[in-house]
Task: structure prediction
Amino acid sequence: MATSSRLDAKIPQGSLEDKWEKYKSSVPLVNPANKRNIEVIVVGTGLAGASAAATLAEMGYKVKAFCFQDSPRRAHSIAAQGGINAAKNYQNDGDSVHRLFYDTIKGGDYRSREANVHRLAEVSGNIIDQCVAQGVPFAREYGGLLSNRSFGGVQVQRTFYAAGQTGQQLLLGAYSGLQRQVGMGTITMYNRHEMLDVVKIDGKCRGIIARNLITGELERHSAHAVLLCTGGYGNVFYLSTNAMGSNVTAAWKAHKRGAFFANPCFTQIHPTCIPVSGEHQSKLTLMSESLRNDGRIWVPKKQNDTRAGNAIPEDERDYYLERRYPAFGNLVPRDIASRAAKERCDAGYGVGTSKLAVFLDFSAAFHRYGQGEANKNNITNASESQILEWGKAVVKEKYGNLFDMYKQITGEDPYEVPMRIYPAVHYTMGGLWVDYNLMTTVPGLYSLGEANFSDHGANRLGASALMQGLADGYFVIPITVGAYLAGEIRTGHISTDHEAFVKTEKEVKDRIEKLISIQGNTSPELFHRRLGKIMWDKCGMGRNEKGLKEAIVEIRALREEFWKDVKVMGKIGDFNPELDKANRVADFIELGELMCIDALTRNESCGGHFREEYQTEEGEALRDDENFMFVSAWEHIDSEKWELHKEDLVYDNIKIAQRSYK
Amino acid sequence: MSWFTQALTSSIGKKLIMSLTGLFLISFLVIHATINAMIFYNDGGETFSHWGHFMGTNPIIRTLEIGLVLGFLLHIADGLWLTKANNDARPVKYAVSNASANSKWYSRSMGLLGTLILIFLVIHTSHFWIPNRTNQFATGEELNLYQMMLDIFQNVWVVLIYVAGCFSLFWHLLHGFESAFKSLGLYHVKYNGAIHFVGVAFSIVIPVLFALMPISIFFGWVY
Amino acid sequence: MSAGNMRLTLKVWRQSNTNTQGGFENYNLDGVSPDMSFLEMFDILNEQLIEENKEPVAFDHDCREGICGMCSMFINGQPHGPLKGVTTCQLHMRSFQDGDTITVEPWRAGAFPVIKDLVVDRDGFDRIISAGGFVSVNTGNAQDANNLPIAKEDADDAFSAAACIGCGACVAACKNASAMLFVSAKISQLALLPQGQAERSIRAEKMVAQMDAEGFGNCTNTHACSAECPKEISFENIARMNREYLGAKVSSKAV
Result:
């Protein structure tokens, strides 16, 4: 096996620990006077986009930032609850850059690139410093120092958090940096704008076509580099924890213009989401992984047990994660916890009306914390109900907002009855293929954050998405983009009258007109639901050859039907959310096909990709390192046609082993 | 604009003026109520007239009275200005508003209550203050305010108007007293309870005291 | 398509763009489940409208888990509806009765012009943040995070203020369409933290000036804003902002 000649990861020479340091001191720079004449477009204003835009503008580049929401502060990074990892070792529990690096590679089931992950671990500490300096109110101990907690797949406490709203606080920090630059005139902000295509001139990315979502006008924007920070594509499943507007369109357009799409089948199913309550459901809500610090997951030992959770006695409960994975218990990584829940439900042990749920139970935590409070206050004769009451108060302080949210959505009080949870699509590890510089296979086109494939392999550990988004935006791209832009100082302003802009805009316009002219019978929403069902049933938590082949056929048929029968109301030159949705769904359908092809090609199980044919006797994922230790990078050739390029993964610093959390 | 005018014409500055003039008028209410309450000695107006004479003739008090008039005018003008600006801030109104779910009606009706109090003030000053001062300017003599009270408050309609004025004042104070402290930024968990208690007590005691004057005279309890 | 059996009459504000006059339209909706969120109920309404070849109702929404601050409906006279401490997306139909008539309007404020139907333009909030809602620290300038101990109480208070999602319910609820709760939450967060001290005065001055320039109303201290705030941001912040602003005006060197 050899890496495709089309894929040059540009990993710097030298030992793993020195690569980034050496790279930083040798990468070409753009002098301040030249920076003022270089334009950079940033699409998306989540953690990666907002931090990149702010930092590049601080450095002196002319930045244009785009988001489809009404304000950059709305990006879905805001919904991340639990926390952000950093190898600070503030808890003195043996953490280090190497350990974070190792945990991330192992957590990703040995399908990520060593050099990128190590760099991520190296800059992780700087992220916390930067955020604190911005005024991000992280949780603190009474001594005034930062507090940490644990997340899945890890045996140290390295997760920094701000109650259950860490993503929000980090995003507002990055957003404040971005708005500061907007105020200074170094960033021009285009909100309610959606990128609909990438413009290439002589093989280089030179700008984008964006639609003003209020007026419907198409706009041409040129730049010397374009950064796609557009998040993941989990909404291909229709139901996911993503925001309603989260979409793949920007990345997909880039893909169709020559950017390879890597590991599309690597999707993360988060184990602790509120179960689906009915057909009407439009999205799923996550219950933070941090809950697994204190909650215990179980199902009844008896199949089809219809008793209420509290009515099932202790010895008739199966704490299956603690049973199967004694070393990590309830804090196994997400892919493993999700699969274990599915396994129990498929075997008939599920709970709730749908039988597609397991219990997440805090009664032991109530008791433990309550007893702790009693001890602290020297009360020896506390009654059981007093202890429970005190324990609930402690839990409320830690997770109150999550418990409230659960109650609001389900109508059940989790302080009284165990929560019901079930896995749901949450994050996509796959994304645009990027090299060490975060550049895609299109020169001048970069991809950051969840939109790229780079750091999480086949499974992402909790609290690592925020880390990666901010690492890419604050600390990586500002350095690596110089390598390319140093060669652009003589280019000068790029005219949007260039024929490539005219042609691309025409193609976008034609597609929009086509969409609205079909006037069929089915709304984009219903197509999206149907796509989601195919994807979840056949390319979801468990996949097999037969199902994937069926899915490909079904998706192709769905795509044809879509282009014949979609019904888009409203006008083109108008604020038209239906048209926006139709545009996005059309791209999701194409992506869905590629995901199934990728899943079908990868004849192994690893991380979030579980091919039912490839499992150990104990039902664990069975990797095939000999044949599949590579990144699948797909080149778009034509409709229904892709070419696979492989990037070998070389592990010089880590001993590859079967991933065990037992 | 200088920093000073900038500060006073800003949204917070306008509230500052409202707050300071309000507190100043509250201090006036204390004096006014205290002196008028002298009628409850029921000594034929002797104590009342003694202090009334002092207030009406002492040069310091007379000078301060100019400040009082200015305070009223500023409070009213600022109130009108704020009401206009606030009205403009929402050009299209809600068809359905369930504001009682989030706030007290009298908090939302300060402009209305203020206007009622202003109407009352016109009536009230034309009963006492204006004739008295006019007479002082013309003749140098004060009128017998006590006797005027006894006369004027024989009319049941006048009494009712005065009681209504006191109700307006009660609600205006019930919101305004505490609100003045908030606008000044004086809001702290340690002192809010005390401010609230004093505010409510003040809003009740002063209007009740005022209302009792015409009522007592009308019913002949004070003569 | 859904298992519900509630019947509702919806009175929804329709307006094709900023420059046209809007008005209410009445819609009858069947089959609403009490487990639906308010926005899922609107999804059903929109599917129904599409089937009838009518243009669906435009409304802002994104995360649907109560944190992005995009959803913004004024429901039966209250921003985000009758329930305390939740956004429209987290309001569920079990808060309503079968047979109810529900009136839905956009946020109304001169500073929040209607873009379409229930969608309003809240760019003013971004401009206020641009005026000073930040700590001027360039990437890479930071010292080690634990070099700056912050009392837990201050960090917690700052967090409570920082929890604002910028939805604009405070403006919508205020009888004066005042943005003071929003502005004061940011001023408070940074005034409470040591990182915010360097720009404390100038921040208060500039953010308030921008707030005024946007055309928001003044504060009457009715507390409607914090009573309706989905994140229950404390009214205390407004008092703190008053202090910060007046203090800044008196003490800063800007003449």
Chain C has two domains: 6-116, 122-251. Chain C touches chain A through 83 residues (CB under 8 Å). The longest strand of chain C covers residues 23-32.
